[in-house]
Amino acid sequence: MAEVIRLDEPTIRYSTDATASDRVPVIGKPKIQTSIDDVHVSKRNISTNELYPLSFELKPELATALRLLEEGIQEMNVSVAMLEEGDLLSSDDALQRFQALLPELFCCRDLGDGFGAIINAVFHSLINLQGSPANNEQLRTLRNIMNRISTEPFIEFEEAVAEIMLLEDVGLITEPEHFKFVADFLIE
Amino acid sequence: MTHSLDLAQLKLRQAAIEIRYDNAYTLWDRAGRIWSRASSEWSNLKMIEAAPNITKFILNDRMELQVKLDRAHLIDLKASSSLKEFIEIAEIFVDIVAISLDISRFTRLGFRLTYYKNFPDKASAANVLLACKKLVVPEGKHFNIQGKVLLPRYSLLWEGESTAIQVTFAAQDRKIELDISPGIEELESVHMEKHEIVYDIDYYTLNHISKGQLNVKDWIEQTYHLIKRDSRVFMGV
Q1: Which of A31, A47, B80, B122 has the fewest C-beta atoms lying within 10 Å of its C-beta?
Q2: Quick check: A51 and B225 CB within 8 A?
Q3: With a threshold of 0.90, does the pTM exceed it?
Q4: Which residues 138-157 of A are in CB contact (within 8 Å) with B?
């Protein structure tokens, strides 16, 4: 019968030869954890630019995406504000400027499937309006989804689908129009 | 003759990433799920500890993976300078923990590297650290001792609005002791003492991070690049 000899982990000690260094601290950490410990109310979320400070050098597609998203969100803000002021023409101009950014944003889809899915859905939502102006609820939903991927560019695909469903809830069609013909063809 | 150091002269001893999150009580239900998923990714996992609040495994006799109620970490105990394997494992591990525990945001991310360099004696280790001129040390006779400086240590916290680093640059003695029980003739006890300089840098976030904001590979790569680029400032080069 084989005998297995297991060795203890070697002890590694560092240069701590201080007087009475093995004494238990007089003031220890309280053993009772209060609910306060779990609350982080004072903390804000870190910005994506702060989290990835070298994106221009090491992850250009992220830097490009964040720049375009910032620009796009500003245009969406203008579009919403103009619509609420009753200036439909200026609102639509801002929306078109936003729309012009989408092809370049789509080029950043290597960031993740979720990111690509959302940009694709937003692009087709606007195309499928076929020139009609978006209403206030649609603009706000579009702006919210752009804000979401601006703060969470690596969003999971499942969460991106949930966001895309919100676009459909406000009457936007997020897939290419010919998809319905393909679907009909497959059903037949 | 003593010279100041830069990072290229030191050897990477270990790399660690830690994620912290609000208490994930689902750990009590899903600890098994975490490690089942981990086992399907890596075959060579060895369980070290399994208790309600903490589970710890070793992968390939090299990586320590641990999950607790409010944090999880991966430590590469034999890190290569490319961090290739570390990054590959970290990506998967963080993903498994976040998905299994339904974590939607992290309260803190930490990335810590420990570098070292051995010296023949503690005086030469101390002299090299002092040559970096980050410490002002007295000369002459004090406390009635005509002494010399040994085991100098330089440590600081460099904090910004959203991120911070804790840097420690120290000369230290490292004693390794392994006692073999009497009767095992094949092995000998180990008692060794190393004199080394250690550069320990802990880069961490101060604010929350959404799960969809985190790409582990990119974050580690960019942080590692920053550490390599700017460490010379703290090493006196």
Answers
A1: A31
A2: no
A3: no
A4: 148, 151-156
Give a yes or no: residue B187 inside a domain: yes
* Interface ipTM > 0.90: no
Dihedral sign computed on CA atoms, order B6, B12, B14, B17: positive
**Does some domain include residue B19?**
yes
Residue B181 clears pLDDT 70, i.e. is over it: yes
Question: If DSSP codes are grouped into helix, strand and coil, which group holds residue A137?
Answer: helix
**Number of domains into which chain B is organized:** 1
pLDDT at A121 over 80: yes
Question: Do the domain assignments include residue B210?
Answer: yes
> How many whole angstroms separate alpha carbon B129 and alpha carbon B153?
8
Query: Are A94 and A83 in contact, with CB atoms under 8 Å apart?
Result: no
Whether the Cβ atoms of residue B134 and residue B219 lie closer than 8 Å to each other: no
- Cβ <8 Å between B213 and A43: no
* Beta-carbon-side half-sphere exposure of residue A137 (alpha carbons within 13 Å): 7
Please state, in angstroms and rounded to a whole number, the distance separating the CA atoms of residues B237 and B223.
20
Residues 6+ apart with CB under 8 A from B144: none
Domain range for B178 is 7-235
Our CA dihedral for A64, A70, A74, A77, rounded to 10 degrees, sits at 130
Which amino acid is present at A38?
A: D
* Region label for A77, one of left (φ > 0), alpha (ψ between -120 and 50) or beta (otherwise): alpha
| CA count, 13 A, side-chain hemisphere, B73 | 15
Q: DSSP assignment of B116-159, as one string?
A: EEEESSHHHHHHHHHHT--S----SEETTEE----S-EEEEEEE
Phi, psi of B210 (to 5 degrees): -70, 150
The percent of residues in chain A predicted with pLDDT above 90, rounded, is 65
Compute the distance between CA of residue B47 and CA of residue B173 in angstroms, rounded to an integer. 31
- Assess if residue B1 is contained within a domain: no
Considering only the beta carbons, identify the residue of B207, B215, B218 that sits closest to A46: B207
Inter-chain CB proximity A153 and B212 less than 8 Å: yes
- Rounded to 5 degrees, φ, ψ at B173 are -100, 140
